[in-house]
Amino acid sequence: MSRNVIVAGASMGGLRAAEQLRAAGYTGLITVVGEEPRMPYNRPPLSKEVLAGRQSFDSLAFRPRASVADVKWVLGTAVVSADVGRRVVGLADGSELTFDGLVVATGVRPRRLRCPGLAARRRTLRTLADARVLRAELTRPGVRVVVAGAGFIGCEVAATAVALGAAEVTVVDPEPLPMLRPLGELTARELLRRHEWHGVRFALGTAVTAFDDRGVVLADGRRLNADVVVEAVGSVPNTDWLAGNGLDLDDGVRTDGLLRAGGLPYLVAVGDVARFPNARYDGVPRRVEHWSIAGDSAKRAARTLAAHLAGTEPDPEPFAPLPSFWSDHHDFRLQCFGAPALGLDDVRVLEGEAAGDFVVGYHRGGRLVGVVALGGPAVTAAAARHRSALLKQPAFTA
User: Reductase C-terminal domain spans which residues (predicted)?
Assistant: First the structure.
């Protein structure tokens, strides 16, 4: 009897999971279900090259490997429910699909501000459709932009809006510095200086509390005029459809070190929605919303699921990826390897100067756990050299 694997989510993680199932020797049916009416595409350029007009919308689609030519794609309808015990998922169109194995790859959605007032000017940036709408608005002459959230997406959108000629761009955030929590004070302070030098304004230590017909109202009483408000205040894992199955869904789908959820050998999670322990650092399950994790987690989860479906034991080696990401702003890049947020109490400049282009190392217990470069090609290349030091670190042992 032929086996059937359902991949819930036609994301990069979903595509890579299908490809890696084939690479792991699984030859049965694979059905990928996705809410968007298009094949998987690359999301990081949405807030950078695509929004700026340097890359076309049509260029983002991934080219699937030949090994998944027989995969069935069910697009334009979302998975809305699951009975994991019965091994059935329900779709938004009312149909049901049974499975022998289920890959959770439903990713995240933008968190929204819970503020009263007009919604017509409020935008998020997660999908191609979002990017099309936002680009049309940012290219209007004299546009005034408020970005709620000074994280990676918020700062990238602000930089792009300035480059497109927006009349005013203001970033609002409750923290005293942009990207303070993930990167620490040293890097955050230099990011602030560079963004301000390029013309981005900041309203820090406050938050958007309401919208009116002119723009936004801040917690400190100030009003900012805005034609467009971009909400970049974080993300929410898409796990609602899994409720009622006894799974730990607190901030994503909690898995073990082999990416299995709920102790079930036929249920795995990948990408932004997975909350897993990384054996490279410690045993604490965390979600990691970095581009590299989609592919790394898909490979590990596929091997785990394929072994179960073949009736063999999975590779017992715990999952220990090295996260990495890059973020482009104005004329400089932020390049990261590892987990800087775990080493914020011990940050050291490894190369360069703190008030210029630099590479910094983040340490925990004297051990290097993350490397971040800020600046031009020379320091981002230097960060890649320090990556080898991170890879040589021994795995965590309890």
Answer: 325-383
* Pairwise CA distance, residues 386 & 358, whole Å: 12
- Spatial contact of 3 and 309, defined as CB atoms under 8 Å apart: yes
Distance CA 150, CA 233 (A): 8
pLDDT confidence bin for 397, thresholds 50/70/90: low
Lowest mean pLDDT among 23-32, 247-256, 329-338, 379-388: 379-388
Alpha-carbon span 22 to 18, nearest angstrom: 7
Interatomic CA distance for residues 139 and 132, integer angstroms: 11
pTM for this one?
A: 0.95
Cα separation, 34 vs 93, whole angstroms? 12
Contact indicator for 241, 106 with CB cutoff of 8 Å: yes
Per-residue DSSP letter, 242 = G
Query: Do residues 360 and 372 lie in contact, with contact meaning Cβ atoms separated by under 8 Å?
Result: yes
Number of helices (H) and strands (E) in the chain: give both, helices first: 7, 26
Integer Cα distance of 210 and 92 in angstroms: 33
Question: Which tens digit of pLDDT belongs to each residue from 96-143?
Answer: 999 999 999 999 999 999 988 777 789 999 999 999 999 999 999 999
DSSP annotation of 336: E
Going from the N-terminus, what domains does the chain have, and what CATH number goes with each?
A: 4-107+238-310 (3.50.50.60), 111-234 (3.50.50.60), 331-392 (3.30.390.30)
Measured between alpha carbons, how far is 142 from 129 in angstroms, rounded to an integer?
A: 23
Buried b / exposed e along 363-394 (16+ C-beta atoms within 10 A):
bbeeebbbbbbbbeeebbebbeebeeebeeee
Rg of the chain in Å (alpha carbons): 22
User: In sequence order, what are the residues at sequence separation of 6 or more whose Cβ sits closer than 8 angstroms to the Cβ of residue 139?
Assistant: 53, 164, 165
Question: Within 10 Å of residue 221's Cβ, how many Cβ atoms?
Answer: 8
Dump pLDDT digits (tens) for 236-252: 999 999 999 999 999 99
